[in-house]
Each structure stands twice: as structure tokens, then as C-alpha cells.
Amino acid sequence: QVQLVESGGNSVQAGGSLRLSCAASLIYGRYCMAWFRQAPGKEREGVGVMYLIDGSTGYGDSVKGRFTISQDNAKNTLYLQMNSLKPEDTAMYYCAAGSAYYSSNGGYYYCIRAHEAFGDWGQGTQVTVSS
């Protein structure tokens, strides 16, 4: 089982930036990693996903252009750089790891930005953005 530990959550003002980190234990067989968030009373939302083999990423519409996922292979760490933060970004942020899917038509692997596709989760880190 993969162990994931998030850090970097904090309280910031609107327009500010934060960088979240997710330190992962051995991730053999887990080729997709993602960030999700969940605000009180709302469903868990896929923020962004990365296919670890080639570093390709995908983002939700609400964060596209503001958030960036990156990885440091040497440290087994995934990052989420969040810029131009808005009050609606306030949530608990979770890191997740899962397997990639294979497209037999296209002959390639890909990740799905849906929580059902991920079996390993961190404990979360809180981000609060004030106006």
C-alpha cells in the first residue's frame, strides 16, 4: 500500500499563492497521482492529475491556468502550485495515487481525474483563502 503525506496547507488572502507537497512511499504500479479537494458540504472535486511516466497533466476547469502539478522523482514528491487563490478554493486538499488506464484504440495509457480511479489517499491538508 502506498503511503501519502500532504503538507503545505495554510491560510492566505485572496490573490496569494501556496505550494502543497505530497510525499509518497514506494509507488510501484501507481502511475497516476492527483490532487483532490473537498469543501464542507460539497463533493470531492478532482483538481488535477499527472501521469507519472511522461509528466502529462490535466486540470479541472475551476483551476486551469492557476494551479500546476509537478513532481520530483528523486524525492518521490508531488507538488501542487496554487496561484491567484480565490475564497472558493478553500477546502481540504488530498493527494491520491492510482493505476493508469489503457486505451486499446489509441495504444496509450492515461489517468482519470475521478476519485473512483484512486485507491491510495493521504490524510489531507487544509487550505483557507480569505477575501
Q: Could you explain the architecture of this structure?
A:
The protein is mostly beta strands and 131 residues long. The chain contains no helices and 13 strands. The chain has strands spanning 4-7, 11-13, 18-24, 32-38, 45-51, 56-59, 67-72, 77-82, 91-98, 101-103, 108-110, 120-121, 125-130. The strands form 3 sheets. Strands 2, 4, 5, 6, 9, 12 and 13 form a 7-stranded mixed sheet that branches. Strands 1-3-8-7 form a 4-stranded antiparallel sheet, with no helix packed on it. A two-stranded antiparallel sheet has the order 10-11. A hairpin with a 4-residue loop joins strand 5 and strand 6. The N and C termini lie far apart (39 Å).
Please describe the topology of this protein:
Layout lengths: L3 E4 L3 E3 L4 E7 L7 E7 L6 E7 L4 E4 L7 E6 L4 E6 L8 E8 L2 E3 L4 E3 L9 E2 L3 E6 L1
Total strands: the figure is 13
Mind telling me the C-alpha Rg?
14 Å
- The mean pLDDT is 94
User: What percentage of the residues does DSSP assign to strands (E)?
Assistant: over 45%
Quote the distance from N terminus to C terminus: 39 Å
The SS-based structural class is: mainly beta
Tally of helical runs: 0
Q: Which word captures the global form?
A: globular
Low-pLDDT sequence parts = none
Sum up the structure in keywords.
globular; seven-stranded mixed sheet; 131 residues; mainly beta; four-stranded antiparallel sheet
Summarize the structure.
By secondary structure, the chain is an all-beta fold. The chain has strands at 4-7, 11-13, 18-24, 32-38, 45-51, 56-59, 67-72, 77-82, 91-98, 101-103, 108-110, 120-121, 125-130.
